[in-house]
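Q: what sequence does this backbone want?
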């Protein structure tokens, strides 16, 4: 797993002054968004931890982490490995779940047969979160596996012989950021299951309320509480205020309890960054809250709509307020480390806001630039098409989609022979020399995985050792599910 480091706004602004502005009207290739959607959801099955179900479709994966939680005498089996490693980090896992739930809420009716698979992917995470929230009093479990030890190994999850350390936050060691995000995930997921499994939906929402209360009453950053178990891997660089905002916004949508709006107003959370990610939730919270202003005609939410539009104005390449750099090939470029995580998350917000605008035939202005639903949709489509192969290298950055895609993905399970092919364990460092450093393609195709992507020059080396570009992550995929459903349905 790469070190995910977000830099200051000043550096982002410095990077943003690119001389390149591409035409949103340029003819683009036609892609099979439905096929890409199916693959993007299938990827989550390759990331599963725990005992796999009989209908598991990624056959080269096996059971793993079956004793997770035992060091604390609790059951913490299940959940997802975040990326190419064998660690369960709840902070990015919860963001993954929130985004997957949000996209399912927005586009579930357009997903066709993939709706059931999306729900299954969400539930694999929420079942685990319910364990984390209820395993012990006054503790919220937030991760399993020592990342510093795990990252010294290159072994299949089925072979793990490293210590499965258990991490939690508590009143004495708070974690408002990770708790706020877990509350958001549980609340968003409760809406996904509301019409199909009422009892489960109520259980998720009740736990969302409980976990959010824990986040509010015990304020502090989990990075400070967990130290090297969180940093530099998934430090909460933006602080925890955005997660409190995000969690309250989702609880407001799930409960319609206006007290959550009153709480949000006490936070003073008016930051308008030009990115959106597992760490920084402001833009997403503003778009979520803007729905009540734009679609619901509730003027109490007008300020959130304005913040959402300010965010869009910072992203659009022809906006006088843009602070976003683009590659010559037309890709949003934010940061060198796993740039596609920002591209998919931002694109998800763009499609959602375009959907809201279309429902009311709404437009707004970025200075002298008139912004319509089509303006935003065109930019979002450009990003999705770039990822699927409309780029200078003519490469799909989704593994298994198209003919030319990454073959040497930075991913332990994909890069090592499966148990069926090699029943013997490789051990902690047994996989490095024969499989990590080889130029051969991975033996197991990690279908649907979206990797970190090309550099600022639109170049992708396809090297397993180059984790910042070749590593996939659950949160990259969770964010692209919605845009793929959006553009697939627009073709019907």
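A:
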């Amino acid at each position: 797993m790469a070190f995910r480091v977000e830099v200051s706004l000043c550096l982002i602004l410095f990077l943003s002054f690119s001389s390149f502005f591409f035409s949103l009207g340029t003819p683009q290739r036609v892609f099979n968004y439905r096929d890409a959607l199916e693959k993007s959801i299938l990827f989550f099955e390759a990331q599963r931890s725990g005992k796999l179900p009989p209908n598991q479709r990624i056959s080269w994966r096996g059971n793993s982490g079956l004793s997770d939680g035992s060091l604390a005498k609790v059951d913490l089996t299940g959940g997802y490995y975040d990326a190419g490693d064998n660690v369960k980090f709840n902070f990015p896992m919860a963001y993954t779940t929130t985004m997957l739930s949000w996209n399912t809420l927005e586009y579930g009716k357009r997903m066709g047969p993939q709706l059931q698979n999306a729900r299954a992917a969400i539930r694999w995470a929420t079942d685990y979160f319910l364990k984390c929230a209820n395993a012990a009093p006054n503790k919220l479990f937030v991760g399993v596996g020592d990342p510093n030890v795990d990252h010294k190994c290159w072994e299949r999850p089925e072979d793990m012989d490293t210590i499965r350390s258990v991490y939690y936050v508590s009143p004495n060691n708070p974690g408002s950021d990770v708790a706020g995000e877990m509350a958001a995930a549980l609340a968003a997921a409760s809406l996904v299951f509301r019409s199909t499994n009422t009892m489960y939906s109520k259980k998720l929402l009740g736990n969302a309320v409980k976990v959010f209360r824990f986040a509010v009453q015990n304020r502090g950053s989990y990075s400070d509480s967990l130290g090297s178990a969180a940093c530099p891997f998934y430090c909460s660089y933006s602080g925890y205020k955005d997660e409190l905002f995000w969690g309250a916004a989702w609880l407001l949508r799930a409960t319609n309890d206006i007290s959550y709006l009153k709480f949000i107003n006490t936070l003073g959370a008016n930051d308008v960054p030009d990115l959106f990610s597992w760490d920084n939730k402001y833009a997403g919270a503003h778009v979520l809250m803007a729905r009540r202003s734009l679609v619901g005609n509730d003027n109490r939410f007008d300020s959130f709509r304005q913040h959402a539009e300010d965010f869009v104005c910072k992203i659009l390449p022809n906006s006088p307020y843009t602070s976003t750099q683009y590659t010559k090939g037309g890709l949003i470029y934010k940061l060198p480390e796993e740039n596609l995580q920002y591209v998919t998350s931002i694109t998800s917000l763009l499609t959602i806001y375009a959907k809201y605008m279309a429902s009311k035939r709404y437009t707004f202005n970025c200075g002298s630039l008139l912004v319509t639903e089509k303006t935003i949709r065109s930019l979002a489509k450009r990003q999705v098409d770039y990822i699927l192969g409309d780029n200078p290298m003519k490469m799909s950055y989704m593994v298994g989609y198209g003919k030319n895609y990454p073959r040497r993905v930075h991913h332990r399970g994909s890069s090592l022979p499966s148990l069926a092919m090699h029943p013997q364990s490789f051990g902690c460092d047994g996989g490095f020399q024969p499989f990590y450093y080889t130029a051969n393609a991975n033996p197991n195709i990690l279908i649907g995985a979206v990797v970190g992507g090309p550099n600022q020059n639109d170049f992708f080396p396809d090297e397993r050792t180059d984790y910042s570009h070749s590593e996939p992550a659950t949160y990259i995929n969770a964010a692209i599910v919605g845009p793929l459903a959006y553009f697939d349905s627009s073709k019907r």
